[in-house]
Amino acid sequence: MQTAKQILHGYLRLYRSISEEYRGQFGTVTLTFPQTLVLSLLSAEGPMPISELAKATGSANSTISGVLDRLEQMELIQRIRSEKDRRVVYVALTPHYEDVREEIESSVLRKFPDLIGRMSPEEIEQIRSYLEMQKIKFPGSVDAYIGYADEVAEVKVPYLLLFTAVENSFKHAMSLYDALWLVVQCEHYEEGTFRGLRMTVQDNGKGFSEEVLEMFSPGREEELPSPKDHLGLTNISRTLRLLYHRNDLLRLSNAKTGGAHVEIWIPEEPV
User: Fold this and answer.
1) How far apart are the first and last CA of the chain?
2) Which of 78-87, 118-127, 161-170, 171-180 has the lowest mean pLDDT?
3) Which of 118, 138, 191, 204 is the most exposed place for a label (fewest CB within 10 A)?
4) How are beta strands 77-81 and 48-49 bridged, if at all?
5) CA-to-CA distance for 100 and 109, rounded, in angstroms?
6) CA-CA distance, 28 to 103, in Å (whole number)?
7) Which residues of the chain form CATH 3.30.565.10?
8) 131 pLDDT exceeds 90?
9) What whole-number distance in Å separates Cα of residue 199 and Cα of residue 240?
10) Ramachandran region of residue 258, left (φ > 0), alpha (ψ -120 to 50) or beta?
């Protein structure tokens, strides 16, 4: 059994690896993971108050201010005071960002092969550490199970995809009144012409609304603007579309027993 100190160190190593993985992946426009997250959100949602931006990215106001300062220095965002309420400050993309957006997006696509690796036991262990941290944070309120078949270690998977789905469940299913249970499974899967890895995350929360189910329905040709509180699912969907040129690899549903059910299908080889 890991001690709280060991779990904390494991989680910190995971966070550091996330930041390092995304740092410098954007060509001549060098961006960190938090900066990229802010730009992605503003691109999808348009101008946002700083407080809402902090909430949507899971950051403290002081943290998001530092991120915005650096993006403002790079002339990628601008702060605009609300005309209706001068106390409210909005954040918006600049014309300069529009000028370099194509460069950023094309550079991301070139770097995608570097963001794919094997579904290793180490990544599963990182998720276990994250779950243990939540158990310490919410004693007696979290129960989780991870099922992992050895053969899935041979399938190439975009880094942090499963972690994002697990984190999304905690964000939306955690309640002050009911204990959360979470089931995470990774298995080799075949259906029709599909052959590869199926990763599932199921919780006992309130489930998905009809709006969200429609928004992320398999086969949708056009992506609808994502609600601010489902940025994680939006990023998963966009990553799958960009990498595999398919719009049916993220599948959401509500379990018969209640709660959200997320399936991520990973073909054995990218198209």
Assistant:
1) 41
2) 118-127
3) 191
4) unpaired
5) 14
6) 8
7) 119-267
8) no
9) 13
10) left
Provide CATH 1.10.10.10 ranges for the chain. Answer: 22-114
**Cβ atoms of residues 146 and 199 within 8 Å:** no
C-alpha span between 151 and 185 (Å, rounded)? 13
Structure tokens at 146: 């991870």
Phi, psi of 58 (to 5 degrees): 70, 30
The single-letter DSSP state of residue 168 is H
The residue type at 5: K
Token reading at 61: 């106001």
Flag whether pLDDT at 8 surpasses 50: no
Place of tokens 């931006």: 53
pLDDT at residue 1 above 50?
A: no
- CB 173, CB 180: distance < 8 Å: yes
Residues 95-115 have pLDDT tens digits of 888 887 777 666 555 554 555
The CATH T-level fold of domain 22-114 is: Arc Repressor Mutant, subunit A (1.10.10)
Kindly report the number of other CB atoms within 10 A of residue 224's CB atom: 13
Is the separation of the CB atoms in 244 and 267 below 8 Å? yes
**Cβ contacts of 111 within 8 Å, gap of 6 or more:** 25, 26
Distances in whole angstroms, Cα of residue 43 to Cα of each of 27, 87, 150? 19, 24, 39
How far apart CA 172 and CA 256 sit, in angstroms, is 18
Q: In the prediction, which pLDDT does 253 show?
A: 94
Residue 224 pLDDT level (bands cut at 50, 70, 90): low
The 3-state DSSP composition of the chain as helix, strand, coil percent (nearest 5) reads 50, 20, 30
Average pLDDT over residues 140-165: 79
Furthest C-alpha separation in the chain: 58
